[in-house]
Amino acid sequence: MSLRTQLTEILPPLLPSNPSEAIKGTELIRLARLQLNGAYSDASLRYHFSIMSCDPASPIAKVEKGQGYYRRSAPVPALTGAQELLSLSQGRLDDLSSDHEAVDSALERLRKFRAVVTRYYEVNGRFPYVFRQAFAQGASLGNLWKFPEVVLVDWETGDAPDEVFALDPTMLSLKQRLGLPPFRLHAARLRIHPSLASFREDFFQALSASMWAQGGELIYAAPVEDEALADGLRRLNAIFGVGVISFGLTAQALDDLPRAANILNAHPRETEALMDRLQINRIAAPHTRQHIDWQSLDGLRRESEEVQHLIGWLNDCVGKGRAEAFRDEA
Question: Per its UniProt entry, which superkingdom is the organism in (predicted)?
Fold first, then answer.
């Protein structure tokens, strides 16, 4: 039996499931050697740990920051069911089709995370626009590659406290003369759990859904703790430019949060307490383009009322000379 085959069988019980409790390589070598058949050097074992930690099918993963190894969770199988579940989880959840309570729980986590993302960017001076109809039940699965979950709008606003939402008239006029938009649009896709088995699909859906915008973001709820996963995301970012960020919210942390409606309507002190729970980690910064692909955006506008509402909202803000949060009158 090869060393790799032996390690695949031996390692799972030895590895902690929590990355924060990762085991050092020296200790893992000591424990593994007690069960191995054959004399293998420390260098050979370390080499195999390193190679296997980059394989999504292997049980061992290396922590992204720090030292040590932990047990990689198995990839979850596909599910056909609620479109909203599919949209925010790449169609990969446990088989919940006969467990309505589990489906409700998964949907609630997704809604909470979307609400957290909305409030976080509002607090940090950005203006989010959330897509919902594009991922409603009965919508085309192709929408996963065409529409973002959230568009983040950045405006040139005044510096004085009483002008915090007033658009800078000088910059507004200059950009209009130069034919430049007076805002930056970044299209974001949301995902609950990062996985070495599915990060490429996550990334390229985010890229596809943001081609018309000035930049793209892939936003994960859970922390990116696998070193191989983080490296893979950074390599894709270097070539294609989509930014990657984690909010540090595990499934348990999401379950502990109030309902989505309460998050969106929280008082300032409650919102501050919520922000304190986040562990924001920027994996890779987005590459921002100067221009919007207006032709592509116009094509989407003809397909989606939500895109029409987005354009109408932006136009109203420019006309008023003031950045205002989007209000869905529906």
Answer: Bacteria
